[in-house]
Amino acid sequence: MHSTRTACSTQASWAGPPVETPEVRTDLSPEALASPDLALSNDIIRTCVHCGICLSHCPTYQVRHDENDSPRGRIVLMRNMLEKGGTPDEMTVKHLDRCLSCLACEAICPSGVKYSKLIGQSREHIEAHYPRPAVQRGMRHLLAKLVPSPGLFRMALIAGRAARPMRSLFPGTLRAMLDALPGHAARRPSAVDRPQVFPAQGPRRARVSMLSGCVQKVLEPGINEATIRLLQRHGVEVVVARGAGCCGALSDHMGMAEQAQPMMKANIEAWLREAGAGDSIDAIIINASGCGTAVKAYGHALRHDPAWAERAARVSALAKDVTEFMTDIGLNADLVRPERTASMRVVYHAPCSMQHGQHIVHQPLDLLRKAGFEVAEPPDSFMCCGSAGIYNLLQPEIAGELKRRKAWSIRSVDAAVAATGNIGCMTQLADAVGIPFVHTVELLDWATGGPEPQALRGSKPPGSAQLEKAVSESASGPVAGSNPTI
Ligand code: SF4
Ligand code: SF4
């Protein structure tokens, strides 16, 4: 028997009432601890001193006021589940399913509990050992199939909009799916998402590969277009690599490693082919922070696969959010058009996957200010909006309450436009905040010479025709082909 005790190390600088710090024990057998994954989980659990500081930052605890829906309570549930092994009980699965994986707890924890790795390991354990009811299992597999495939997702979007007037006839998750559909019709696919190269404007300062993604390019294709224009304008050559697609995050979040890992490997292969094609790449640019967090974790996800571990770690090291990269190379102040931005107040919503998952906090704010916008944040900026991948489809009640609270918080800021860096948050909040909701990069592109973001003017951007004409010649050609500036 292996037993461990940890002492309370609550720091005096943390405000709040005195907290109880009961002994934290783990009791995994030596056989279980021989597994590197369980040994890692054991170490993480032992780091928790049960101080409870994370409770006030946990969205599900704030909504439900149930210890089992708090990080501290879930750590105990996960410890019990992993110690016991085998099939977890229904109550444990219910409370772990309710976790958003927002990582606010990890960000605030004074003891350094690596919650993300623990919940990831636990979700894989549940997926492997827990027989979910048939309807639930079918819905999860449907979503895992539908979401990463832009073609299927587009068809589902069109069918869903047609079915929305009959939403009351549909059961739980299906109704949540209809409610989560964007207010606008499916957009035309953008020509920029095909494999191709976009040359730098002026002397080339960097060469990057851009993840064109899956859901985002169906819902808001203008985001990739704005990203490419912004980068080109700053002297960056942008490659959309042949063979890259969905990052695998949504399946991974559901503990479905078998579905997620082939997508990860396809991306690794595609990007490293570019990196090794005689003209290396300086970064892999990602403009959806949920995907960025996933790609930065490829090294961890594939660590046990000797054929992929090293390459996966290489890709993770190259991955950068577009605002992270733009901060590194610097927004060119000479390009800024103050007449577009000076009088505009922006409320910036920080996605959890950006601020807690990747620790990117000040970069989007600084870039927007440098571009001339007046920027404010909502009062509860650390709190999740309830989107969390497909959480809003699987847990619509909690997600709906979090959406309501976040929308109120954003509306409390007197701003003309809301911006964020994650398509999930945009889709979750767009119909609730009462002002246009755009991606940060769309504002940066507009501020430095690009077209006005579609949400600001509610029409198809002028220039799209030229854009499609510009890329049409080489759009279906090899990656080595090159397109004019868009
Ligand atoms: S996870 Fe961190 S903040 Fe939460 S109870 Fe444990 S030690 Fe405290
Ligand atoms: S990841 Fe988010 S929802 Fe889950 S326990 Fe931590 S703070 Fe709560």
Q: Describe it for me?
A:
The protein is α/β, with parallel strands linked by helices and 486 residues long. It has 27 helices and nine strands. The protein has helices spanning 30-33, 36-47, 59-64, 71-84, 90-97, 104-108, 115-129, 134-146, 150-163, 172-180, 215-219, 222-233, 249-253, 257-275, 289-296, 298-301, 309-318, 322-329, 338-341, 352-355, 362-370, 391-394, 396-411, 423-429, 440-447, 454-457, 464-472, and strands spanning 196-198, 206-210, 236-240, 283-286, 319-321, 345-348, 374-376, 417-420, 437-439. A five-stranded mixed beta sheet has the order 1-3-2-4-5. A four-stranded parallel beta sheet has the order 7-6-8-9, sandwiched between helices. Helix 2 (36-47) runs antiparallel to helix 4 and helix 4 crosses helix 7 (115-129). The protein is globular and about 65 Å long. The N and C termini lie far apart (64 Å). One iron/sulfur cluster binds at residues 48-54, 71-72, 105, 109, 111, 113.
Question: What is this structure's SSE topology?
Answer:
Blueprint: H1 30-33, H2 36-47, H3 59-64, H4 71-84, H5 90-97, H6 104-108, H7 115-129, H8 134-146, H9 150-163, H10 172-180, E1 196-198, E2 206-210, H11 215-219, H12 222-233, E3 236-240, H13 249-253, H14 257-275, E4 283-286, H15 289-296, H16 298-301, H17 309-318, E5 319-321, H18 322-329, H19 338-341, E6 345-348, H20 352-355, H21 362-370, E7 374-376, H22 391-394, H23 396-411, E8 417-420, H24 423-429, E9 437-439, H25 440-447, H26 454-457, H27 464-472
Parallel strand pairs: 2-3, 2-4, 4-5, 6-7, 6-8, 8-9
Antiparallel strand pairs: 1-3
The structure holds iron/sulfur cluster (2 copies).
